[in-house]
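Journal club side-thread
Mid-discussion, someone asked how the predicted structure for our own chain would compare to the paper's figures. Pasting it here so we can look after the session.
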Amino acid sequence: MPRAYVNGINIYYNIEGQGEPLVLIMGYSGGLIGWVFQRRAFGKHNRIITLDNRGVGKTDKPGGAYSMKMMADDTVGLMDHLGIEKAHICGMSMGGMIAQEIAINYPERVGKLVLGCTAARRTDSLGAILGLGEGYTDDDIRALPIMKFVNSLYSYGFNKCLYRIFMVPMAKVYARFSSPIGLTVQLEAVLAHNTLDRLHMIGAPTLVITGTEDRLVPPSSSEALANGIPNARLVRIEGGSHSFFIEMRGRANREILDFLRDG
């Protein structure tokens, strides 16, 4: 798969399928491999662009501060490199945070917007997941060993036993090959993310989709997104986990494809 020199780094990406461009942006610590259950289904209808975000996978992993705006600039820069003036944008979890920044800062580049299992700002659920108790601070999170943090997230990302048995160990192995620096600075970007006061600036038709049993980003975060984005549509996948797009991919893929094809 090719790399593109964009925004001062080499970005690893893949293109497949035919039709209107659809950029898929994966969440924290994840890369394009995380779209394995979407690429074929979506590629029947769209030209699919997937990428490893700055800091993970085969994309460069520079140190220094990251931000969602920086990673949004990376994605739009990749679109420029590929000659794509406008695309549908779909982001999951942290990828949805990046997608929000794209829609706010580059409205002319976005066709339709899909925000899955994500939030306008990081949620208070992190403290409970990490065993920090009440009154924890961002510094308490930063003090944790980064792999302990990542492993905790993966364990809470799946609800079905079969997926916890097979997918979580695979995800942990993938994370071990990632750069601790990249994982740490991505985490800093997540902690700093806040678009709550700017959601009204999103003009693209938007689908907000969440699992009702998401233990990482509670469904209330998706409700806040849908309430803040003009005319956004909210879909709740009953029983869905944070990784509903994997565990309940049939329903999730249908909802996303129907939204992209509608109108």
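Post-session note: The longest strand covers residues 9-16.
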